[in-house]
Amino acid sequence: MSRLLALAAWALPLSFAQFIPAPTDLIQAKGYANISVRYKEVPTGICELDPNVKSYSGYADIGENQHVFWWFFEARNQNASTAPLTVWINGGPGSSSMIGLFQEMGPCYIDKNGNPYNNPYSWTNASNMLFIDQPTQTGFSYSIPVPAYKDGESGQLTVLPNTTCPDYAKNWACGTYSYFNQSLTADSTPAAAPSMYKTLQGFMGAFPQYSSGELFFATESYGGHWAPVFNEYILEQNANLAEGARKINFAGVIIGNGWHDPLIQYQSYYNFTVNPGNTYDYDPFTDSQKARMYNNLYGPGNCYDQIADCYARGTNQDCSLADNFCARQVELLFDNLAKRDELDIRYLSPNPFPPEYFVKYLNTPKVRQGIGAYVNFSKSSNAVGLAFGSTGDGGRVLTILTDMKKLIDANMTLIMFYGDADYNCNWLGGEAVSHKIGAPGYEAAGYTDIISSDSIVHGQVKQAGKFSFLRIYESGHLVPFYQPLVSLEMFQRALAGLDMATGKTVVGKGYLTKGTQKSTYREGKRTRRVAREGDEDVARGKEWETGRERVKNMGVEVIPVMEGGEQSNRGNNVYVSWKMNMNKTPVMVHASLTAMLMFQ
Questions:
Q1: N or C: which end of the chain has fewer CB within 10 A?
Q2: One domain for residues 322 and 361
Q3: Residues with catalytic roles
Q4: 569 CB-contact burial (10 Å; exposed 0-12 / middle 13-18 / buried 19+)
């Protein structure tokens, strides 16, 4: 199943046609392995607001009709030439890494008026960050730039003969796009690995001053496929270095809500919704619907059998049919019957969070010129999704678990973290995968609380050596958005080689967390209560100061809500309601804005 995030980029219209000429102000450079790189320094204020922190963006021209967009940010408050380099890629397949940059851990967010504002929890507080749109035709990356019209309903591209927007087309949908051609992008995770490696060689050669230290690889969602396979490929290339290539000082992998092993994780949809269920006590199905899901999963010739056949035979047809069947008949039952958001079960669908103001922002001429983009921005790529669907890549386990075990055996950092309100790549499936990897000592480790600097327990961790599995409370699919503080501190601890629980102990091969074998904390139904304007339990008064600026920038109204005596066992948490200005949808959020909780 494609892990593409909801809400396509074309759902947010531009105000005018944007046919884009080729950028003429890019600096030409030659990277390692003879990879050509074009780039420019991004003006302060496009995203990073500190004039003392540099940012660059551009393209790695890794082959004919293969132009990969990247955006680099120096680390804040430290010497960028000695700071580690972290590569971030989003999932999909075909999801732009601008999602991570502007909705999760980048230096800025975009407000409702299209203005950037500072993200104090940016991962650039700990590392140089390199965001890459891959494979080709994802985000700002392109194969062949063409004038085209994009249909607002289907996202289908119609190539135009010139840069005149026809009368039948909505003016905002005309522009310069990457030519829609599945043969000009990767169609599987293994096929995408060489392109990622070439992109890194190009960047590191063009910017050796940022490439001398350790390199970490961070990702989420379909990144559960990307990261293990890509990094095994990098290690293979390091061992057999081609002429002109540079050895990559690879140090570890961080994966959020990853899609790793379909045979395990398709079963976890039943586990998460039926037995044992989720920790929000949300039961979405009737008894007959539960029986239907069980049969679709385990009935003769159904999902489990088809994925097993894919594993055994490995043909494109077997794997594509299996993945499609499981997605439609198992995973999407939740979407069709529960009407909740897959990426955060606390929300009705469509989920208004995180806000997507960045999509329109990236398609403004000022920003596009400031970063040297040659095509209009699309949040996700249909071409990439269809290409991967044709091989059934999402239904394959590939060498993923073996590759993860190799990282552990090489004493590299490997972190799996999961927001526990995500159904799409849920934590129960991730936990089951973590046990299948075979990390030394892991079965003897126990869950212990994660202690953050705010003294609130935001989750639990089970850790053996440098391998750890984290369950993050009250978080959807995009953990750095929902829980920015704990995700930043997790990242800082990973880079420093410290334990995930406290950040005070240097971990070695013998390190084990102590605690229960299961993480049993339940958020429960207390999060169901939603205050609406005019409700008797709404306390009129001063806005909460905590997180106030972030609330204002998202375009919501904050109303304090009385808890009626209910008390969280994780601290003195106060909940407030958000009233979205755009559609008046009532939402509950933690006053610290590190959790957003909604039920009808």
A1: C
A2: no
A3: 221, 422, 477
A4: exposed
